[in-house]
Amino acid sequence: MATQELQEQPRRNNPESRRGPGSMSPGISYDLSASAASAVRRTTGLLRRHKLLIGTVIVVGTGLAALVAFRMTPLYTAETLIMVEHRKNTVLNFEGVVSDMTPDISALQSEVAILKSPAFAEKVVAKLKLMNDPEFNASLRPPPPGWVSALNPRNWIPDSWKASSGVPLSPEEIERNHLTSVVNAVLDNTSVRPQGRSYVIAVSFDSEDPRKSSLIANTMADLYLVDQLDEKFKASKRATQWLEERLTDLRKEAQTSGDAVEKYRTQHGLTTSSNNESTVVGQQLSQLNADYILARTKRQEAETKLRDVTAMANSPRGASAVGDVLGSPLIQALREREVDLQRQIAEATNRYGAKHPMLQALQSQLRDLQGQIKADVGKIVSNLSNEVELAKGREQGLKASLDQVEAKQNEQQQATVGLRTLERDATTAQSMYEALLTRSQQIATQNDMRQPDARIVSEASIPLDPSQPNRKLILLLALVASGTLGVLLAMLRERAESGFRSPHQFETATGVRSLGIVPRIPRFGGSPAAYVVDKPISAFAESMQNLRTSLLLANPDGRHRVILFSSSVPGEGKSSVAAAFARTCANAGQRTILVDCDLRRKCLHEMLGMSNNRGLAEVLAGTATLEEVIQVDPRTGLHVIPAGHGRTLPQDTLGSSGMHQLLSRLSVNYDRIVLDSPPVLAVSEGKLLAALADQTVFIVRWGMTKRGTAMAGLKEVIEAGGEVVGVLFSQVDTRRHAQYEFPDSGRYHGYRRYYAN
């Protein structure tokens, strides 16, 4: 039931919990300027609260940075500028064996990598004999002072741990390791970078000696140009040697290929004619082809003529048609004779009649003449037939010869494929030999004209002022970094605070009302019980008066007289507040008695300067009367019952009926009965007293008591039946409390001119 009330009290005491679900909470601000101002105030308060921590971190961090900066050895930087040539000045338009560098980004980065390479740095070390320079060779430096050596973390490692794996090293390997360390030291002090989007590379070197830095930077530039020429001459030499070897091989290959071509041509009869345009077989084939075409044409003409003559001979016209076609003089003469005889026969028939002897003689002559013509035509046809046969025979002979020549040519054509392959191989070998011979002559000419692809634009001069360390920048960065670290530590410290910083926080978390805060008294102000009397108008005394007023308002009828001061754990100032409050009430004229109920840790009598011969334990045990143990404070008239020296268990003593009767008896004679209780989480008698008291004031130490602990102690008091009238924060640093953004921040400290502390 008590736990339920503890959970419900925040809702009852919080007016926002009674608002409807649609209403706007008045605690939420939508004013951005107010939110920003609040954030600024919170940040300022954080810085003010932890200014000692922040200031310490800044002073220590900046001091260490200043110590380191002023102990650093100054370094001087010399810089030389090298421009990669992007214009090609070539006398001959030949493509280089080692092609001139194209100055694009990748090429510039490659040159930067060369300048930063260990191999190049090793050339610089050898050139300037830097192995003998203590600045780069650590083995030549004198040992540092003892305190400096002690601060070096490397010296904290035992020598046995730093021993090598046990692999023995030869003197050459040891010397090589020393050289590598010197080369690495040179590279650490070397900076190579392109200058923007130009073709210029800046080479800078840092050294303790300004002259040395200038010398090394210029030496790097010179060695870089020499290295370029060296590489080009080496490449040309390698190319020349390779070309000479290749020329020898190609010369042999070209000669072998040419011999193979001639041998193959001879074996396959692929000799050409005098004009070197075709082979003998090709010419024969061409001539036979022409003769065959001519013979076939003549045979076709003879056949056509024979066919026409035969057809005409069998036609009605007969010999006359043949004579007209052939144009034979004999046939034509016989034809004329036949026509003349026919004319004579016609005349004789008209003159003499059909039976005249002359007519018969003429007809006999005509018949003889026609027979002769027919015999002559037959001879002509027979001759034409012979000509056709002769033409066919000639054509067939030419065809056979042509087929033979074609077969031979096909064989030669197949052989020509292999010949062409051999000829191409021979031509290729000859071309490669001639090209490499020409290239070799060009390279021999170019070797005398080779120039580096870069030039020195500006040599490094001797620097007059050190480039590092930049002490001002180091101090500024250290100041900013230490300030940032201090603020971060302050924020972490603020986050790590587990206690309540304001009664408002406690009231929000538990719903228990606040009875105010009790300022922490000055360091040499004495005990709180004495301070409240010695400084009656101090902030501490005012907090007691405020507590007294709050309790009077909570008990207007005066029925609740027994007031218990309780806390969760020891050290929260519960006894001091109880004694100071009792003295305040007694000094105000109220009949007040202070009872020390902490039978385990008896301290009230010491605060008030009284004895503890007999007290509460003896009264409850019946070995002393109440009047015998009550002591009177001479300064305020406060009555005090010390704890005494009981032999029974405290929980049995305080939980007895005698304790209840004692409180009832005291309530008759006193206006205020102040009980100092032991912590409720430490021992159990605190909960017994909470059940007997009319009002309980719960004490929480400001910023120290953990929140969970304070809430657990409050829960124990409520579950025991105690009537918690409110919570009181003790030992409050009013100056730091004023730096928080709480409703009661600034109390007492903001009005400190009203108090005489």
CATH homology-level superfamily of one domain? P-loop containing nucleotide triphosphate hydrolases
State the shape. Answer: elongated
Q: What is the CATH architecture term of one domain?
A: 3-Layer(aba) Sandwich
User: What is the CATH C-level name of one domain?
Assistant: Alpha Beta
Give the proportion of residues in helices.
55-70%
Provide the β-strand percentage band: 5-15%
Output the CATH topology of one domain. Rossmann fold
Major sheet details? 8 strands, mixed
Task: Report the uncertain regions.
Answer: 1-30, 89-99, 273-277
Structural class: alpha/beta
The rounded distance between the terminal residues' Cα atoms is 44 Å
Strand order of the largest sheet: 5-12-11-6-10-7-9-8
GO cellular component, one term: plasma membrane
Family: Belongs to the etk/wzc family. Belongs to the CpsD/CapB family.
Membrane topology: Multi-pass membrane protein
Pfam families: AAA_31, GNVR, Wzz
The gist of it:
By secondary structure, the chain is of the alpha/beta class. It has helices at 2-13, 32-49, 51-71, 105-115, 118-128, 146-151, 171-188, 210-267, 280-313, 319-326, 329-352, 357-446, 471-496, 503-510, 528-534, 539-554, 574-587, 604-607, 616-621, 626-629, 650-654, 657-669, 685-692, 707-719, 734-737, and strands at 76-84, 190-194, 200-207, 454-458, 514-519, 562-567, 592-596, 631-632, 639-641, 672-676, 695-701, 724-732. Among the domains are: 43-72 and 472-495, no CATH class; 500-755, P-loop containing nucleotide triphosphate hydrolases (Rossmann fold).
